[in-house]
Amino acid sequence: MVSELGETKVLFASDLHSSEVFFLKCLSTAKNFNVDLLLISGDLTGKAIVPIVKLDSGKYVTHFMGLNYNVSEGELPPLQRDVRKCGYYYKIMSQQEYQEFKGHPEKIDELFDKVIREAVENWVRKIEEVLPKEMRVVLNPGNDDAFAVDEILKKEPRIEYTVGKVYNIDDAHEMVNCDWVNPTPWNSPRECSDEELENRLRTEIKKASNMAHLICDFHAPPYNTPIDSAPKLGKNMQPKIALMTGQPQYEHVGSKAVRKVLEEFQPKMGLHGHIHESAGICKIGKTVCVNPGSEYLEGTMHGYLLKLTPEGLDEQPLIGG
Predict the structure, then answer these.
(1) Is residue 2 part of a domain?
(2) 3 state DSSP class of 290
(3) Which residues pair with 278 in a beta bridge?
């Protein structure tokens, strides 16, 4: 499982939030660098469905990213591409269907599961089209992903789902995963107290056999580091602005449990995400921690090219495009 050069190349990216452009750039980058493993872990799916309503006049209307759209059928494909580019889903519906969805929230949940399944299946088709069969692909969820996505991922033979398992990256390196995070203002599906998160982290990390070569794919970054700073939020979830500078105020929002566990067990590497604004690298004792960051709305490629050897590791940030 190790290359002839004695190293394993991994492309790690996080927080795609279903951005089609970001995903395709991940595939292209993985292919160009001829990596052994493409690891996309944390917040795979989109945040919302954009209803595109067909009027009796034949026009299509929607409200998206603060703008109102009223387009003809011929203008519809570019609008659909823009919605998917930003990581949102769309559903074309009649006025009657729109009113039914508004009156029955449970139907929206059913629709969301359906569009997530279709999006994941489309990603798998793209993987099969673009990547060589010998290149391994791991897709794991994060705190924003509905639990329905897990069963979808488990059923796809082309991709590997490693939550709850010890995954052998190569003959030397194991990987464990934790998709949960400490509390956020957003009440996402996979968040819990730091005390509970610590228990989850310990359960996973104790499954590994060799800390010196262990890779910890923990979606939450460690607290009070360069990779866990986010804008401080005030009323209506708006960023607080510093009076003297006119710039947003930042605060550390990572997990104290993640930091505690990394300090205690000292694995080789921590792979994190979650905090889009804090791309970077830091060390917790001997443990090298990275957060690729995310600009999924812009479709910008964020990732780390990792080169793992029994003797050490090399990490190269890939941002741009």
Answers:
(1) no
(2) strand
(3) none
Distance CA 90, CA 76 (A): 11
In this predicted model, what pLDDT tens digit does every residue of 195-227 receive, in sequence order? 999 999 999 999 999 999 999 999 999 999 999
CA-to-CA distance for 47 and 183, rounded, in angstroms? 18
Which residue positions in the chain have pLDDT lower than 70?
A: 1-5, 321
CATH number where 152 lies: 3.60.21.10
Specify the pTM.
Answer: 0.92
Residue range of the domain that includes 42: 8-46+116-320
Q: Give how far the C-alpha of residue 51 lies from the chain's centroid of Cα atoms, to the nearest Å.
A: 24
Residue type, 276: H
Q: Is residue 1 part of a domain?
A: no
Q: Looking at the structure, do residues 151 and 75 belong to the same domain, yes or no?
A: no
pLDDT at 1: 59
The sign of the dihedral angle between the CA atoms of 74, 77, 79, 80 is positive
Q: Does residue 56 share a domain with residue 13?
A: no
Structure tokens at 226: 């360069």
For the chain, strand residue ranges (E) read: 8-13, 37-41, 49-54, 60-64, 67-71, 89-94, 136-140, 167-168, 174-178, 214-218, 229-231, 250-252, 269-271, 280-284, 287-291, 301-309, 312-320
List the beta bridge partners of residue 140: 41
Report the SS3 class of residue 234. Answer: coil
Contact 144, 47 (CB under 8 A): yes
Q: What is the pLDDT of residues 177-201, one digit of tens each?
A: 999 999 999 899 999 999 999 999 9
Task: Note the pLDDT of residue 321.
Answer: 65
Q: Do 271 and 286 fall into the same domain? A: yes
Same-domain status, 38 and 54: no
pLDDT of 236: 75
Domain count, the chain: 2
Tokens of 317: 């940030």
**Structure tokens of 143?**
């705190």
